[in-house]
Amino acid sequence: MTIKLHNTKSRKKEVFAPIDPDTVRMYVCGPTVYDRAHLGNARPVVVFDVLYRLLRHTYGADHVTYVRNFTDVDDKINARAAESGRAIGEITEETIQWFLDDMGALGVLEPNHMPRATQYIPQMVAMIEDLIAKGHAYEAEGHVLFAVDSWREQYGKLSGRSVDDMIAGARVEVAPYKKNPMDFVLWKPSTPDLPGWGSPWGRGRPGWHIECSAMAHELLGESFDIHGGGNDLMFPHHENEIAQSCCAHPEGDFARVWMHNEMLQVEGKKMSKSLGNFFTVRDLLEQGVPGEVIRFVFLSTHYRKPMDWTVEKAREAEVTLRKWYRQIGLAEAGTGKVHPQVELELSNDLNTHGALTECHVLSNSNDVTTLRASMRVLGFLENGIPDWAMVPGFSDAETGLVRYLLQEREHARRKKDFERADRIRDGMARAGVVVKDTVGEPEFEKTARFDVNLLDELWGNTP
Ligand SMILES: [Zn+2]
């Protein structure tokens, strides 16, 4: 199976060929941990979870290494600690667990490595020393800055801007110690009340961008296959990651394929606190929107298009999933294969919308084992059929009762004893059994108000 992925670097869809087919390597920028993930934060997590699943499906589960970091040192975290009076470690620990729980509810697999920035400070310091030694960084007033001019020709290629354009249009932080306003911080000094680590430049803490470069290098090497994230990270974060990594390790080429997902909107509008349409994944889960439904809505839009979250889409997704889960729940267990069309759609730059369309076809043709396998590769059914969609099955005795009553109804109809046939039908409805007359054998389902005693009574009273 050939996988094609859109590479932001070349602005083209390219045939994906891993550097080492035995270990496909992927890095995705993870959250800064100081608060609950909002719905927009969850989009890249789900998008790259589908890619991870596709890679595992294609190359084998043991042949993919996926790294997603936690940024647990950041000024936003420091500010949260200061305003709440709580310890930084307590806040980051709690937020990491929230994140894992919330993403787990969306059916997201945990990556192979989830490095925390604070565990890789020595690697960051070593990388910064290397950049200084190679003439790509300089120390100024306790800060270490990356010298953009030392890499001017390359800087900006990912996002397609020149350094001059960026200076003209960017909200760059002007500081007297910067040689070029575009130079960015690799290391900054910490006051005693802020987290800090010893370094050749005094007690301080790392800049955000160096974290990803150091952790990706440590866990994936100089060159790896895929780097992902939201397109809001393309500049400056990813541009800076490339500059640091390629200058520190010119023998490698850092990430070969860069993938960026588009942003999320709510009912056609940008999600923002001022518009009152800002909510977290946890908010939705607590309102009773199942995680699988959130996942379904996300996957119904291609990752490179803006995703519009609407209540109507969530409602439709729930109806569809309920139907599919019910079909799977009622069917005999059996092993099916992912439908080739689903593989084809996903291999075509993660066309999750196309894959879901094919699942509709499978459901309509009642190809339940293929539907089950296809849903699994999309990240549904990870823990079986969720409780909210569960239709409890009939026990053997109950099935026997229902079948007997259906036979009796059929006899009555044949003898044109419609009164008796209707009596049985109404009695079954009262007992909470829904009967669907089909061309072949009638189908029957249990409802929540099923009462076996009423069914038993009906059996006893049906001469
Ligand atoms: Zn990053």
Automatic annotation (TrEMBL):
InterPro entries: Cys-tRNA-ligase (IPR015803), Cys-tRNA/MSH_ligase (IPR024909), CysS_C (IPR056411), Rossmann-like_a/b/a_fold (IPR014729), tRNA-synt_1_cat_dom (IPR032678), tRNAsynth_Ia_anticodon-bd (IPR009080). Monomer. ATP binds at K273. It is an enzyme of class 6 (ligase). Belongs to the class-I aminoacyl-tRNA synthetase family. It comes from Sedimentitalea todarodis. It is found in: Cytoplasm. A motif ('KMSKS' region) lies at residues 270-274. The gene is cysS. Residues 405-438 form the Cysteinyl-tRNA ligase anticodon binding domain. Residues 16-316 form the tRNA synthetases class I catalytic domain. GO terms for molecular function: cysteine-tRNA ligase activity. It comes from the Bacteria. Zn(2+) binds at C29, C212, H237, E241. Its cofactor is Zn(2+). Binds 1 zinc ion per subunit. Its EC number is 6.1.1.16. Keywords: Aminoacyl-tRNA synthetase, ATP-binding, Cytoplasm, Ligase, Metal-binding, Nucleotide-binding, Protein biosynthesis, Zinc. It catalyses: tRNA(Cys) + L-cysteine + ATP = L-cysteinyl-tRNA(Cys) + AMP + diphosphate. NCBIfam families: cysS (TIGR00435). This is Cysteine--tRNA ligase. Its main location: cytoplasm. Pfam families: CysS_C, tRNA-synt_1e. A motif ('HIGH' region) lies at residues 31-41.
